[in-house]
Amino acid sequence: MKQKINYPQMKNQFNLLNNLKMKTIQNMALVALCAITIVSCSKNSEDVLNDSTVGIALKADAKVRVGDLPVEILDFVAREYPELTINKAEEEDNGNFEVELSNGTELIFDANGSFLGIDDYSQENGEFDDSEIAKEDLLQVILDYIELNYPGVGIDEAELEHNNQYEVELNNDTILIFNMDGDFQGVGVDENDQDNDGNYDWEDENGNDDGDSIDLAQLPEIALLYLQENYPNLTIVYAEIEGEGDFEVTMSNGLEVYFDAEGNFLSVDED
Predict the structure, then answer these.
(1) DSSP 129
(2) Does domain 208-269 bear CATH number 3.30.43.10?
(3) pLDDT digit string (tens) for 233-271?
(4) What are the structural domain ranges in the chain?
(5) Which of 8, 179, 247, 262 has the lowest CB atom count within 10 Å?
(6) Greater model confidence, 209 or 255
């Protein structure tokens, strides 16, 4: 006797099986979605942590070769401070020049070389200079940021810039920029040292070392005599000793004269 097939019952069983498969697939998809979400959130968290020290590269005060200063500045120093020389010079982010003399006096000039005043780091001169900030006077949020992101690196100096931003230079030469609320804005970049390795662009171009400024008394006598004989109407405004022991002397008209370690004349750069 042939068994009678119950088609409605089979159809119900088939539908039930399909429903189970669909639920299984949906559950698997949900699990996969959750896993992706967790990984994505974790990755985002890592990105936030990794980006904590990353900011927009901002222009910082840039070191300037004394010979590249406007001749008006060199002439002013020679005329007003004939017994002193220039230790170093910087172009500030507002275009002004800051010139430090051998006695520590800091002079401020505009972009054209006009004298603006003496930088005494006071808030009163904020229209043309920056204010030095003691480490202990920095906002706590700035100190916390540095401690978290640069552990073991100390603060070399800090200034409140004319644009109301804090510029903090660390002992490793990294320059950090913060706004008035202490929010990190970015890493300051010296435009003459784009790769922040302490080697300035003019060294690469001219092959000269970035020497150390010296007092005139440290120049060999033979070099001083040469300058007096050949440039009697000019004044020495800057002198440095370079890595090989040679000397570089900048005159009040921007002329750069080079001597060897014994003081013998080597060359002159009139550019």
Answers:
(1) S
(2) no
(3) 999 999 999 878 999 999 999 899 999 999 999 999 876
(4) 8-42, 58-189, 208-269
(5) 8
(6) 255
